[in-house]
Amino acid sequence: MNLSRTTMPNQYKPLEQVRPLIERYWQEGLNDHEIVKRVREHFDTTTYTLSIASLKRMRKAWGLKSTRQQKHTVASIAPAVEQIRARAPKMGARQMVVRLREDYMIKAPETLVAACLKSIPPSQDTTQEAAVARLADIVRPADDQIHALALSASPAI
């Protein structure tokens, strides 16, 4: 009786075809179960296999760490949060988590991001005066164009 474990020939899908899918789904924030489920939709499961354990080994080898594995602190995410906040000063913690993951490949818990947002003072550009000045810069050219059109459309006296 032979107890040696045999594997099916060519049971694993070539990594160059699987890796982009796994990285994309990981970037979207899906968990391992969902990633395996979606990747399996892209190939014949009677020929190739993909388990959660295999996925975890691949993620570890590629450096795709989960939220807890990344072990971020307020100090480690603060520079990225400040950059995002400069572009979108009123963004909340939940949306900031998504931006961190998509733009910087940082997976951080929402509670940590909320604590970071509280520790960073809002930028000076978010004042009401700055918003009015930006709006005036946008509206002023349109008013000038309307005024010019009105003058050209009025009959000469």
Note down, in words, how this protein is organized.
The chain has 157 residues and is mostly helical. It is 63% helix and 0% strand. It contains 8 helices and no strands. The termini are far apart. The N terminus is likely disordered.
Short description:
The protein has 157 residues and is an all-alpha fold.
Residue share in helix: 55-70%
Distance between the termini: 112 Å
Proportion of residues in extended strands: under 5%
Can you write the helix and strand succession as a string? HHHHHHHH
Mean pLDDT over the residues? 79
What does the main sheet amount to? none
β-strand number = 0
- What is the helix tally? 8
Query: Structural class, from secondary structure content?
Result: mainly alpha
Question: Main attributes?
Answer:
single chain; 157 residues; mainly alpha; 8 helices; 63% helix
Strand-helix topology:
Blueprint: H1 15-27, H2 32-40, H3 52-62, H4 67-70, H5 74-87, H6 93-104, H7 110-119, H8 128-153
